[in-house]
Amino acid sequence: MHHENLHLWQHAHTFGQEHRRSGERRTSIVIAVTGTMMVVEIVAGLIFGSMALLADGLHMASHTTALFINLFAYVYARRHAHDTRFSFGTGKVNALGGFTGAVLLAVFALMMVWGSIERIINPVAIAFNQAIFVAIIGLVVNGASVFILGDEDEHHHGHERDEHHEHEHADYRHDHNLRSAYYHVLADALTSVLAIIALLAAKYFGLVWMDPMMGIVGAILVCRWSLGLLRVTSAILLDKQASNEIITKIREGIENAGDNRVADLHLWAIGPDIYSAIISIVTHHPELPEYYKKLLPSDLGLAHVTVEVHQCPEGKIPNC
Known about the structure:
Elements: H1 22-48, H2 51-79, H3 92-121, H4 128-149, H5 163-173, H6 176-205, H7 210-237, H8 244-255, E1 261-271, E2 274-283, H9 289-293, E3 302-311
Parallel strand pairs: 2-3
Antiparallel strand pairs: 1-2
Helix pairs in contact: 1-2, 1-4, 2-3, 2-6, 3-6, 3-7, 4-6, 6-7
């Protein structure tokens, strides 16, 4: 067989990663919004000598840096989609971006705890009016960012018969890079809300301790988001077996036809809602691999499937 004829059995491994994702555009908009606000606050803080404005501006700088990492992941995955050095495409760059963002969220939470404890031990005078004004501006900007990045599939789990399987499948379906960016702006919006509540309580009721306490409460919530995102993205990066729901559908599709039995099955995510599978089948009456691929449901996101078929001699293995 001539080498030029092999293209009939070859296919690309881009799996749609060469297309610009909606999350990339939305992340770019949020970076522009927060970056502008960051510059305004830092400049205003330097001109007017406001430490509150300067501190919030520097905080937004770290927040903008985290979003730049998410944007870089989108651009890198798209531009290297055709790079043959990536065996299964660049889909996992999405999970890597989400994992990196989750680590930064954890660092952010630890910084919040450290700063709050320091305030409890060494209280400082608070310029309430100025601080409340800064917190309200931060809430408006971050609230707009949350709306722009709105993780639309966050609540699409539904109430199926088996919620655990549905949630497990949803873990692999998310755009984790977008979820990371979403959590960053949500954390900032939450921080602004808690800060406003604490500052109002301190100003009108003298509850100064509320300020650092709200910082700790916010840090706990941010840490929970971070750990959840770390759990899901690390599972994808380490090629953890995909959900039992999809595995069951694959087995049923093959074993409901004839005397086929799935002897071994490896199924892992190579991108958001994109899977690769290696299926080992034992049967008395072997068919070509293409026959078994056609038995698989078409709505499972199986982008790269390898099938190996083994003939089971009569009477050798019961129920084979």
